[in-house]
Structures are given as C-alpha cells and as structure tokens.
Amino acid sequence: xxxxxxxxxxxxxxxxxxxxxxxxxxxxxxxxxxxxxxxxxxxxxxxxxxxxxxxxxxxxxxxxxxxxxxxxxxxxxxxxxxxxxxxxxxxxxxxxxxxxxxxxxxxxxxxxxxxxxxxxxxxxxxxxxxxxxxxxxxxxxxxxxxxxxxxxxxxxxxxxxxxxxxxxxxxxxxxxxxxxxxxxxxxxxxxxxxxxxxxxxxxxxxxxxxxxxxxxxxxxxxxxxxxxxxxxxxxxxxxxxxxxxxxxxxxxxxxxxxxxxxxxxxxxxxxxxxxxxxxxxxxxxxxxxxxxxxxxxxxxxxxxxxxxxxxxxxxxxxxxxxxxxxxxxxxxxxxxxxxxxxxxxxxxxxxxxxxxxxxxxxxxxxxxxxxxxxxxxxxxxxxxxxxxxxxxxxxxxxxxxxxxxxxxxxxxxxxxxxxxxxxxxxxxxxxxxxxxxxxxxxxxxxxxxxxxxxxxxxxxxxxxxxxxxxxxxxxxxxxxxxxxxxxxxxxxxxxxxxxxxxxxxxxxxxxxxxxxxxxxxxxxxxxxxxxxxxxxxxxxxxxxxxxxxxxxxxxxxxxxxxxxxxxxxxxxxxxxxx
Length: 578
Description:
Lipovitellin-phosvitin complex, beta-sheet shell regions, 12-stranded antiparallel sheet, 12 strands, signal, Lipovitellin_superhlx_dom, Vitellogenin domain-containing protein
C-alpha cells in the first residue's frame, strides 16, 4: 500500500491560501529610520545584528487599531470555513532595524470548519520583516505558534499593506501568504488612497494557483500615516478539486484608536524577540507541518468519539442550509482527525457504512470522515463498504466518491472500484469509473501496476466495446484521470467526434508524450469550437511551462471568447508561479 498526499487533507491549507490577503501596513511599520543600503546590509546579517539600534534611531510610536476580520471559504458551493475575528492590534516599529512588532490584543474568535487557532498563540507578538525597499518580506513567529494561528495572523497583517509612492498613480510588486502580485495604487484626493490587486504573478511553492481580485481603501493623516484601512478580496482556485470549485472571500478593517510613544521597556522587549524567533516566512515552514498536523489532530479529536459525532451530524437535519454546511464540514473534519489518531475508529466507521439501515445523511458523514482521514485503514474501510451486499446504494456511492480522493490505491481498492464500475446503478457506475482512472495513475506512480492489477487496461477494453457516446464520454474522462500513454490513440481518435472532442481534449493533460503537446497546439489554433479550445487550454494548464508559457502569452492577444481567455489566463498564472 502506497501513501499519497490526500486532496481532501490539502483543502484546509488550500482554504488558507485563498485567504492570504495582500501584504501589510507598511506605512505604519516601515523602518523609516533605516536607509536602503543599511537595510540591505542588515538583511544579510545575523538576527542579533539585525536588531541592533541605530545611534540616530528616532523615538518609536505604538499605534493601536480596532480590527475586524471575516473570511468565508466554500467548496462546491457549500460553506467549508467561516471565521470572524474582532479585537485590537498594535504596531510598534523597532528603530534602527527592518522589523516591526505586531501584537493582537483581546481577540474574540469564532471559527466554524477548518482548524481552530489557539487563542494563546494568537496573542503572542509577531515580527514583521521588510526588505530594502520597505516592502514586507515575511513574518517571524515564536517557534511554539501552531499552524492555524500562523495562517490567520498572516492573513490579518497581510490584508492592508500600503506601499507609498509618488504622483497620482504608482505600482509595486508585493508579497502575501499566497504569492507575489502587482499592486496598483491611485490617489483619490489628499487623504484617500486606493490599491487594486488583480491576480498573482507567482505563487508560493506548493500552493494551488489562485485567481484573485481585491481592493484596499486607505485613509491617511497629514504625515501619510494610516488612520483607517478597509480591504475586500475574493479568490478562487484556477483548478477544480474533487469536491468542486474552491472560492474564498476576505474582509479586513482597521481603525486607529490609540497612539503613544513607546517606552524603553517596550522597545527592549520587542528587540529581544528577534533573537529567539524564526526567520521571516509567508507560509508555515514545511518541516513543521507533519508534527503540527499530528498535534492538531490530537487537539481536535480530544473529547470526541464516533457515536457522539454521528449523533451531532444527525441533528443537523432540518437546519438552515448555510448553517448545515458549516456544521457538517466541521464534524466531518473532526471525524477525519479522530480516525487518524484512532485507526480502530476508522475501521468501525467502515463497518457501519457497510451495514444495512444507514441513512443517506449518515453515509455522507461516515464516508466523508474516512476520506478526510486519508489513511490506509480508511481506504480499506471504504473498499469494504463499496463491495458490501448489505450497504445501501447511497453508502456505496459515497464510498466511491471518497475513494476517488484517497491518497492510496492497491489491489483491494481497485477491486472494489471495478465492482462498483459494473453496477446496474448509473451514478455508482460513473463515480467508480472516474475513481478507477485516478487509481490507475496512483498505482503507476508507485510502480504497483502489474498482471491482475491494471485498471487502465480494463478501461480501454470497456471503451472498445462501448455502444453509445455517453458511455464513451465517461470512459474518456476516466482515462484522462489516469494519464496513461496507452490511452493516447483512443483519445486522439475521439477528437473527431463533436460530442466527445471537449472531453477528449482535456483528457490529454497528464499524458507525458511530446506528441500530446503537438496535438494540443493544433487544437488550440485550429478548432472552431470554443468548448474544445477551452478544454485544450485547461489541459495545457498541466503541461510543461517551458514549452507553453511563451506561446500562451501571445495566444492571449488573439483569443476572443471570454471563457477560453479565462482558461488561458489560469494556465499562465499557474506556469508563472515558482
């Protein structure tokens, strides 16, 4: 059994990326006492040298703002994460350094879905680090701060950057928790400045590409210091997840409520943080994620058991749709954490899913929790439920959906999906077939394809004997999930059919053959059907950037169809990321 990174397990991080915001209150915290040359020297020096006070350091002012943050993430149109934060945040520039201390005071936090930050971690001060140009380069955290708190604090401080400039308009490349974007500024009178953000130039490594738009409205005083700021940003992934489109909305507002000259004790305490804090980062260090995940699982699962979670899920029936979505997402992910911490509970959930008498809602909960767990035990529990003669048809459908998202595949899961793909139920047959294609790709990547375990060979045989286009279309999509070179000729032949061509074009995306790029280029430049061109560019999204990126930029100026243009832009944004 081979482990793979679970798409569902990645969704909390994906949701956090959607809410990365813009960068930070540079005008409030920018190290104005440091020259660009001095800042550049400090950036290469050890932490102790970075925080050494300048002989001419000016007195520093602590500015306190009332702050509110609201973020909302949906997956497939259903609420996944809902967060509301209120409190105060103070900013204290540290004279003679490139650092600014930020401290959240009296936070009131309400979180539904996703991981809940620890309030104690939210209250710990953080250090905002700037580059030689005065722009944010990262956030420095206490090593004890949990990942959920890091993500929320980064979103908070990164939503309202103000990079000053001269004249009525100017631009700057800024960085936030998702990547690098171009910020376009415009003065609206003497005291009001607006910033416009339209997408990312580069994404941080490992993050799913986003399409983002946001606006920031800033009110400054006579010395160009921020008095208030209001930010609104909407984001969505430019590639679909197994659960559907992921979209996010972030709103942050700041309003100055207090200001005072910092005391020597406050400045000394702020400087002392730098010696113990981590280096600047805009995303949590990868080395910490495994341990952090285990800790979060244990904390989330504490005090819960399977029966209590099942009962709580059942109680959501009849509640308003938006409330049901939030509550059920929370319960499913709590179950996933429980199953990772206690594998025996995952096996018990599988037995209940495979038994008769399970309601549709409970089948959704049990299968969703097992998918969220992403473990070998969970995969085998789903396979058992899919093949159980006592399981309801809905339980088997939910099991097939969840297996499609699992990071593991072996003979047991492939056999279960093959049985589901032979079902008399059209929905189960379709869902299992799609999952078989994905399983074939996982097995090939791990080198586990062999005699008696070759889902792609079975899919190709089914395609050869298919008698209608609806069946062929489903099988083409499944073959596209596999990325197997053996499917190339079948897919190329399907391009001649107007009914099958869009599915066939997209099905080319994972096949690692030079002939695929040639064929995609022909489709993009010669097909009169915008649906085919759109599917082609959606496939190009997954191809080699060195081959496609220069050509895509020229294609952008020639294409006229709006949906095709959107697919081209998504591919360019993805390929331009690190």
